[in-house]
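Task: sequence design from structure.
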C-alpha cells in the first residue's frame, strides 16, 4: 500500500471543506502540504445545490442585529440550541461573509450595488444573502473551487473516499485509509490534523433532497473511531421537494424562499391549509410546515400537496428563481401558471460528530466541520440558511485554531495503527454485494419507520430490521467498492439515528413521536459513543 504524509488532510469538498482548505493554506505556513480528498469531483456536494441562501448578520444590513438572529435560531431550535455557540457564530458572521466575498463569492445586489436580502421561514427579518437568485450553493462552491485550484499549497485528490480513521493507543487521530474508486487501490495518509467535512446522511432515507454522496461517511468513521456523536435523532425533513411522477427518489428542492416571497401551500382542491396548523402559516418553522403537509397528504390520501406561486408577479418570479423555474419547466410545470406538486423529503442532519465551533472533537487530531459536525447551533430544528453559515464560520475558526497548533508530521506509527493498516492489505473474500438494492431496502426501512412521525413500535421495528441487514452484510471493515463502503456507513448512521430516537422519549422539533407531546423546554443533547 502507498503511504504519504501531509500537515493537514481535509476530507470533503463542500462549502466547509473547500473554505477550510483555503483558509488554512492562506493563514498557515505549513511544514508539508495540505491534502484535500473528495469522493466525487471537486465541489460535488450538498453545498453545490443549496438554493435559498446563507444567513449573515452583516454591517451592510443595519436593521439586523445578533440578538434578533440568536432569538430566531433558539426559537426554531426548540430548547436544544446552545446559546453561547449561537451568539458566537452570529457575531462573527459579518467578518466571515465579507471574507467570503473577498475570496470571490458574489452575492446578489440591487442596481445600486447593495447586497439584497431575502426572508425564509422563522426569520424575523430579511437577512439571507443569495447568489444567482436561487443558486447560492453553486455561487459559493464555484468561487471556492476556483480559489482552491489556484492555490499551489493545496493538493487535490478526487474520486477518493476516506474509509477508516487511524487512531493510536493514546486515542490520537494520526491519519486515514483512503480508497480510490477508479484504481481500486487503498492508500494510507498520515497527518497531524485530519478534518472531516463530509456532510450529512440524507441518503439513508427513501426521499431526500440530498445528492448521492450524502451517506454519512464522516459520522460513521468517527463513531467507529470512538468519537462522541450527538443528537442523531434530529433529521430535518424539508416540507417542499418537487414530487413528480414517475417518482424520483432524489427530490429536487423547491426553496423555502419561494414561500418567503409569498407563495401559498394548497391541497388538491386548491384550498390553503396552513392557518389550521400555525398562525405563521407558510413561514412557520420547517418542522411545523412539514408535519402540516404530511397531515394534509394523509387526510386526502394524496402523494403530495401544491405550492402556488402562480399569482405572484411572473417576471419577478422567473428572475428570482431561475433554477427552480427551469427545472419545473423541464417537468412540464410553468410556475407562473400552475401550482407546483410538493412533498417533504429528508434534508438536513442536525446531529453529528460533537464538535466545537473551531472543529475540535473528542479525539485529538480529529476535527469536524459543516453538516457532519454537531456544534449545538441547530438544536432540534435548524433555522433556514444557518447551515451554510455554520460551514464557513467553523472552517474559518478551524484555520485560526490550527495556526496555533503543532502541525509536525507524526514520526512513530504504533502497533495498533499497523494492525488497522494490515486489514486493508489483505484480500477480501466473497462476491460483490448488490449494494444498490441493499441501500434501497435500508432507505425504505428508515422512511417508513424513522421518518417524519415515529413511535416506539416503529423504531423498535426499524432497529430489528437494520440489525438483520447488518448481520447479513459480512464486511465490517475492508469492502470491495465505494458502494459497499457507503452501504456499510449508512447502516452505522441509521443505527445511530434509531438509537437516538428510541432514547429520546419526547417530541421536540424535528423529532416527532406520536406517543409523546411536543416540548420546547430546555433539554440536554443526546450522546452516543462506541464502546470497544
Ligand atoms: P457537503 O456540502 O455535503 O460536502 C460534503 C463533501 O464531502 C462532498 O464533497 C462529498 O463528496 C464529500 N465526502 C463525503 N464522504 C466522503 C468520504 N468518505 N471521503 C471523501 N469525501 C467525502 N443550507 C443553507 O444554509 N442554505 C440553503 O439555501 C440550503 N439549501 C439546500 C438545498 C439543498 C438541495 C440541500 C441538499 C441542502 C441545502 N442546505 C442549505 C443545506 C446545506 O447545503 C448543507 O448543510 C451544507 O452545504 C453542508 O456543507 P458541507 O460542506 O458540510 O457538506
Ligand atoms: C431552501 O432553500 O429552502 C433550503 C434552505 C436551507 O436548507 O437552509
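Answer:
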Amino acid at each position: 500500500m502507498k503511504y504519504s504524509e501531509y500537515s493537514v488532510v481535509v476530507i470533503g469538498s463542500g462549502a466547509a471543506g473547500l473554505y477550510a482548505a483555503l483558509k488554512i493554506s492562506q493563514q498557515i505556513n505549513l511544514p508539508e502540504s495540505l491534502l484535500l480528498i473528495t469522493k466525487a469531483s471537486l465541489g460535488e456536494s450538498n453545498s453545490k445545490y443549496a438554493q435559498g441562501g446563507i444567513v449573515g448578520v452583516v454591517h451592510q444590513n443595519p436593521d439586523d442585529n445578533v440578538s434578533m438572529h440568536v432569538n430566531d435560531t433558539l426559537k426554531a431550535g426548540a430548547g436544544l440550541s446552545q446559546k453561547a455557540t449561537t451568539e458566537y457564530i452570529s457575531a462573527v458572521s459579518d467578518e466571515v461573509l465579507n471574507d467570503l466575498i473577498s475570496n470571490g463569492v458574489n452575492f446578489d445586489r440591487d442596481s445600486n450595488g447593495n447586497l439584497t436580502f431575502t426572508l425564509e421561514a422563522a426569520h424575523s427579518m430579511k437577512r439571507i444573502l443569495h447568489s444567482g437568485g436561487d443558486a447560492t450553493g453553486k455561487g459559493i462552491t464555484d468561487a471556492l473551487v476556483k480559489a482552491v485550484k489556484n492555490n499551489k499549497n493545496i493538493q487535490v485528490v478526487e474520486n477518493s473516499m476516506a474509509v477508516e480513521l487511524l487512531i493510536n493507543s493514546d486515542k490520537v487521530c494520526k491519519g486515514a485509509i483512503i480508497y480510490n474508486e477508479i484504481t481500486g487501490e487503498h492508500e494510507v495518509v498520515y497527518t497531524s490534523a485530519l478534518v472531516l467535512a463530509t456532510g450529512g446522511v440524507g441518503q439513508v432515507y427513501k426521499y431526500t433532497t440530498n445528492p448521492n454522496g450524502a451517506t454519512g461517511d464522516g459520522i460513521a468513521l468517527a463513531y467507529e473511531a470512538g468519537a462522541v456523536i450527538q443528537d442523531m435523532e434530529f433529521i430535518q425533513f424539508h416540507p417542499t421537494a418537487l414530487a413528480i411522477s414517475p417518482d424520483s427518489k432524489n427530490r429536487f428542492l423547491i426553496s423555502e424562499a419561494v414561500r418567503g416571497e409569498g407563495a401559498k401551500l394548497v391541497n388538491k382542491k386548491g384550498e390553503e391549509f396552513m392557518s389550521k396548523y400555525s398562525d405563521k402559516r407558510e413561514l412557520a418553522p420547517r418542522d411545523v410546515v412539514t408535519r402540516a403537509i404530511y397531515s394534509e397528504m394523509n387526510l386526502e390520501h394524496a402523494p403530495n400537496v401544491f405550492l402556488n406561486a402562480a399569482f405572484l408577479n411572473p417576471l419577478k418570479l422567473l428572475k428570482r428563481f431561475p433554477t427552480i423555474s427551469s427545472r419545473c419547466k423541464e417537468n412540464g410545470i410553468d410556475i407562473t401558471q400552475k401550482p407546483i406538486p410538493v412533498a417533504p423529503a429528508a434534508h438536513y442532519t442536525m446531529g453529528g460528530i460533537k464538535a466545537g465551533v473551531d472543529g475540535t472533537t473528542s479525539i485529538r487530531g480529529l476535527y469536524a466541520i459543516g453538516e457532519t459536525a454537531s456544534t449545538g447551533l441547530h438544536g432540534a430544528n435548524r433555522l433556514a440558511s444557518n447551515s451554510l453559515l455554520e460551514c464557513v464560520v467553523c472552517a474559518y475558526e478551524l484555520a485560526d485554531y490550527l495556526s496555533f497548533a503543532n502541525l509536525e508530521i507524526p514520526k512513530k506509527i504504533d502497533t495498533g495503527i499497523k494492525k488497522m493498516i494490515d486489514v486493508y492489505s489483505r484480500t477480501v473474500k466473497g462476491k460483490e454485494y448488490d449494494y444498490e438494492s441493499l441501500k434501497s431496502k435500508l432507505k425504505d426501512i428508515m422512511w417508513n419507520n424513522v421518518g417524519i412521525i415515529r413511535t416506539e413500535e416503529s423504531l423498535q421495528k426499524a432497529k430489528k430490521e437494520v440489525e438483520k441487514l447488518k448481520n447479513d452484510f459480512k464486511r465490517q471493515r475492508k469492502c470491495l467498492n465505494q458502494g459497499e463502503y457507503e452501504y456499510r456507513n449508512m447502516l452505522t448512521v441509521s443505527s445511530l439515528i434509531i438509537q437516538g430516537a428510541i432514547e429520546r422519549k419526547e417530541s421536540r422539533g424535528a423529532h416527532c413521536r406520536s406517543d409523546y407531546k411536543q416540548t420546547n423546554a430546555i433539554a440536554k443533547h443526546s450522546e452516543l459513543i462506541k464502546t470497544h
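The first helix runs from residue 15 to 27.
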